[in-house]
Design a protein that fits this description.
The complex is a heterotrimer of chains A (377), B (182) and C (274). With 182 residues, chain B is α/β, with parallel strands linked by helices. Helix content of chain B is 40%, strand content 27%. Chain B contains 6 helices and 6 strands, in the order βαβββαββαααα. The radius of gyration of chain B is 15 Å and the shape is globular. In chain B, 53% of the residues are buried. In chain C, the strands form 2 sheets. In chain C, strands 2-1-3-4-8-7-10-9 form an 8-stranded mixed beta sheet, with helices on both faces. A two-stranded antiparallel ribbon of chain C has the order 5-6. In chain C, α3 packs across α4 and α4 packs across α5. Chain C has a single domain, classed as Thiamin diphosphate (ThDP)-binding fold, Pyr/PP domains (Rossmann fold, 3-Layer(aba) Sandwich). Chain C has 274 residues and is of the alpha/beta class. Classes of the chains: A alpha/beta (377), B alpha/beta (182), C alpha/beta (274). At the A-C interface, α3, α4 and β9 of A face β2, α2, α4 and α11 of C. β8 of chain A pairs antiparallel with β2 of chain B, so a sheet runs across the interface.
């Protein structure tokens, strides 16, 4: 039997990806250009017995999904720039209290209200540095409608596996463009369930590291009673200011992601074997980059592309290796040089990093990238 | 490369984004090609400028936006002025003859007929002007077959409006062929 | 026989953080008696709070407890309740947490009429941060950030809750300790969003600055201003000047409850499911 296909927007695909991953609780607040996610899930979630909430504001939507997750739900919210700013405190809460959740954020122009219908890639730093304090960050940046679907599923999996908020951040072009999507069959893509406790309720501690860096999480209402707080906490969930405990717990929270970078980081290498120039790109910009690389090759220029699929944790290892091989790195991005900073950090001055930075609400076109490729000597 | 680029432009509320979506759906779901549809619009739901872009190809489509336009539909004078400059040499410009009175100059083939009035008078409902225009674009571009395009139209509209849209598509298709032959 | 509070207190978590003379402990005891009266199952009960002195209460109670971020208790609790409608969800917090930073979540929880109970301990001040004025600090009073007297008019929490759509609104005081558990019992039993405001005191950061000579004087003030709703019916407007009504102020059993309404949404969605 042939698989089900549809012609969908990135945002619609994201909603369907969430359903595939078993999302049963969504809370959102209307914001351009991500509202289609809410619209699809308000239609589809109740059919599965799931809950869709439109909350009073962005913060409430984030709070509601964290509450929903603690009560056992597989949860997601969707938003865009200004909403991401508003949610940041509670994203931090999700990090310290270690609550699995998916934050789907469509990148539009900013700061503030900016250009609500214009594409942008200027939230990538906000995904890591937006909330205060040290914390783990996972952020996926899909480049097509199909990939948005699949990356939302992967985001749910990573959230459960590492017990932490995970962001999926398409730019407005990917979120709103329509392409054919082929739906996987049930079971075709792995869906990772939450690690729940095996110990009896009286022995349960919500941050019990004897089970490793990612302790099992019980659900309220499932027979376990425990305490959750946004304060620095001990393994039993209660607050502490004991220096050695706070230090160890903070380090563990970050380590859960840092020690598993190879499991989390994904990327695509395109024509890199003999490349002199590498275009590093992500999201819709990578589509322009691929087009430009193909034309460069036709013109005899040895260009290739490294496409970032996981923005955080950043693919340091891969970029460092590339920097030792190529003559130059070109980075087109719809911001004033955010990924560029990371590339410069990884390149350590070995090769020039040439940026094409655009914040006028227009996509970066292949010609611009081709011109920059030709600047690498 | 088989890449073919279409742009549907006009003002918000004319249904041009829908027309683009149906064209892309016809190519990608029914014709077995690949297609990407994207759009840009102002914050307002009605009025303001609106454009919908469709790329059709036999292979994977990288850049989802128009680079050199093969076929342009312009449903307002403003859209005709704004977008005709990046029409390819030998490309196609379809305009509503009542709304675009200053035909932009260029090395492309211009086809015109009163699209909105056709919808109003020949089909009976102005609201299906976008489907009249789509029928015309399908006829002029030859990127998808008439049958597949019609299937895409019919699968995209509410059941109660199937006949209306079938008629709009068909009249648009025929009118464009007639206008193109002139 | 004296009531055994220990069966509801988490072992090893006392002493609490509240200052001598603070009324929060009285409210906590009232809540515990209410939970005991209703024989709530600990595993099926969530106590959710925001930030502030009053919001530390959940840490002491032996059940599912969630100490969230400042002002966000109602929004977190809505998530818990929607994901597990069978749970009893009780919110606790102070006046600053609930009516300033959390004001939006508060009124929308009232509007939805979701079946949860919110106990607001109103001590007219931000205590934990050292006594800044809150939306409930009376006009003219002193706080660390109103050294010349508070220019702001205050909120009437009960009226706010009624106006926003809560279907059970009651008020008690920390002085009238025996009434607290009765109000909370009735609030929890009510099907819908119930609000219990407890007029409280903060001798440390509010009393000192406003010429209350002692905790006793603060408590006596609560005693003096409180007028039971029934008694108020027989009093003139003049007699009610400066008084605060206590007891069950509002009850509406006709407004649809949110969990019930959402179940209908699911029913409708599943009926059209292809």
């Amino acid at each position: 039997m042939s698989k089900k296909v549809a012609f969908l927007q990135g945002n619609e695909a994201a909603a369907h990806g969430a359903l595939y991953a078993g999302c049963d609780f969504f809370a959102g607040y209307p914001i351009t250009p991500s509202t289609e996610v809410s619209e699809v899930l308000s239609l589809e979630l109740p059919k599965t017995g799931g809950k869709f909430l439109q909350m009073e504001d962005e913060i409430a939507a984030m709070a509601a999904i964290l509450g929903g997750a603690l009560a056992g739900g597989k949860v997601m919210t969707s938003t865009s720039g200004p909403g991401l700013s508003l949610k940041q405190e509670l994203i931090g809460y999700g990090c310290i209290a270690e609550i699995p959740c998916v934050v789907y954020n469509v990148m539009r122009g900013g700061p503030s209200t900016g250009m609500p219908t214009g594409p942008s890639q200027s939230d990538v730093m906000c995904a890591k540095w937006g909330t205060h304090g040290d914390h783990p960050a996972i952020c996926l940046v899909p480049a097509s409608v199909q990939e948005t679907y699949e990356e939302v599923i992967r985001a749910f999996n990573l959230a459960e596996k590492y017990r932490t908020p995970v962001m999926v951040m398409p730019d407005e072009i990917v979120a709103h463009m329509r392409e054919r999507i082929v739906f996987p069959e049930p079971g075709e893509i792995e869906v990772i369930p939450r690690k729940t406790p095996t110990v009896p309720p009286e022995k349960y501690k919500p941050y019990d590291t004897s089970f490793g860096d990612v302790p099992p999480l019980a659900a309220f209402g499932s027979g376990y009673k425990f305490h959750v707080t946004g304060l620095n906490k001990m393994q039993d969930g209660f607050p502490t200011t004991k220096a050695e405990i706070v230090q160890a717990e903070e380090e563990r929270q970050v380590r859960k992601v840092d020690a598993n970078i190879d499991d989390i980081v994904t990327f695509e290498e395109y024509l890199l074997e003999d490349a002199d120039v590498v275009v590093v790109a992500y999201g819709s910009t990578s589509r322009s980059a691929r087009y430009a690389v193909n034309i460069a090759r036709e013109q005899g220029i040895k260009a290739g592309m490294f496409r970032i699929k996981t923005f955080w944790p950043f693919p340091d290892k891969q970029i460092k290796a590339l920097a030792g091989k190529v003559k130059g790195i070109v980075i087109p991005e719809m911001n004033l040089g955010m990924c560029s900073l990371e590339l410069e950090r990884c390149a350590q001055g070995k090769v020039p990093v040439l940026g094409i930075f655009r914040v006028d609400g227009e996509p970066i076109n292949p010609d611009q990238i081709l011109d920059k490729i030709k600047e690498v000597k | 490369m088989s890449r073919y680029e279409l742009r549907f432009s006009g003002s918000g509320g004319q249904g041009l984004i829908t027309a683009g979506i149906i064209m892309a759906k016809a190519a990608s779901i029914y014709e077995g090609k690949q297609a990407v549809q994207s759009q840009s619009y102002g914050p307002e739901a009605r009025g303001g400028s609106s454009k919908s872009e469709v790329i059709i190809s036999d292979g994977p489509i990288d850049y989802p936006k128009v680079t050199e336009c093969d076929a342009l539909l312009a449903m307002t004078q403003e859209a005709a002025n704004k977008y005709s400059h990046d029409l390819k040499e030998g490309g196609i410009l379809l305009i509503d003859s009542d709304l675009v009175t200053n035909v932009p100059p260029g090395n492309f083939k211009t086809v015109s007929f009163p699209i909105i009035n056709t919808a109003k008078n020949d089909v009976g409902r102005e609201i299906v002007a976008n489907i009249v225009a789509l029928g015309a674009m399908v006829a002029l571009t030859g990127q998808v077959s008439r049958e597949n395009a019609e299937k895409a139209v019919l699968s995209s509209v509410p059941e109660a409006f199937i006949e209306l849209n079938r008629k709009a598509f068909s009249i648009g298709y025929e009118k464009a062929l007639a206008a193109s032959a002139q | 026989m004296a009531f055994d509070y220990d069966k509801w207190i988490r072992p090893g978590k006392l002493p609490h953080i509240w200052c001598p003379g603070c009324g929060h402990g009285i409210v906590m005891k009232g809540l515990i008696r209410a939970m005991d009266t209703l024989q709530l199952k600990k595993e099926e009960t969530a106590v959710v709070s925001g930030i502030g002195c009053a919001s530390r209460l959940p840490g002491y109670i032996d059940c599912c407890t969630l100490h969230t971020a400042h002002g966000r208790a109602a929004a977190f609790a809505t998530g818990v309740k929607m994901a597990r409608p069978e749970m009893n969800v009780i919110l606790v917090g102070g006046d600053g947490d609930g009516t300033a930073i959390g004001g939006n979540h508060f009124i929308h929880a009232c509007r939805r009429n979701i079946d949860m109970t919110y106990i607001i301990m109103n001590n007219y001040i931000y205590g934990m941060t050292g006594g800044q004025f809150s939306p409930c600090t009376p006009t003219g009073h002193k706080a660390s950030t109103t050294p010349y007297g508070n220019p702001d008019p205050g909120f009437d929490i009960a009226k706010l809750a009624i106006g926003a759509g809560a279907t059970f609104v009651a008020r008690g005081t920390a002085f009238h300790a025996n009434q607290i558990d009765k109000l909370i019992v009735e609030a929890i039993q009510h099907k819908g969003f119930s609000v219990v405001e407890i007029l409280d005191d903060c001798p440390t950061t509010y009393g000192r600055r406003n010429k209350f000579k002692s905790v006793i004087e603060m408590m006596n003030r609560l005693k003096e201003v409180a007028v039971p709703v029934k008694a108020a019916e027989k009093m003139t407007a003049e007699q009610l000047q400066g008084k605060v009504l206590t007891g069950v102020l509002y009850k509406d059993e006709t407004k649809p409850e949110y969990i019930v309404e959402y179940a209908k949404v699911i029913e409708r969605a599943q009926a059209v499911k292809k």
